[in-house]
Amino acid sequence: MADLPSDSSARAGSTHFMQQCSSCHRLDYDSRGQPSRGPPLGLIFGRLSGSDLHYSKYSEGLLHSAELWNSRNLFRWVKNPAHIALKSNCKFEPLDSDSQVFDLVCFLKELTLANYSLIRSMVVVGHAESEASGRQ
Asked: What domains lie within the chain, and their CATH numbers?
């Protein structure tokens, strides 16, 4: 996984993640490739709700909501999951303020972008190494 984001909202959001989300969610799969109680959230931005193929415990409501996880929808979800899916397995205490929700969303967005950048660079390096070994 990439380093934690450096902007102040995302840093504050990482604290909110640890306090509110980490009892059920990780940012990535464990060393055996397994999720925790909830799906990992390190690459959530840009995905459809209920679309992690390695996680099989989504509620019917979330599976059928077909929402794109973007800033607006994540904000709505953290404020009140019923805005996205009427029935959800995700239970959590709400954050105290909109600014805390904003910070959490910033954290997840920045982390997703950093992880995609890291993945892209690993693919490019792997491709270059593969081409180099093929020329020898």
From this structure: 8-110 (1.10.760.10)
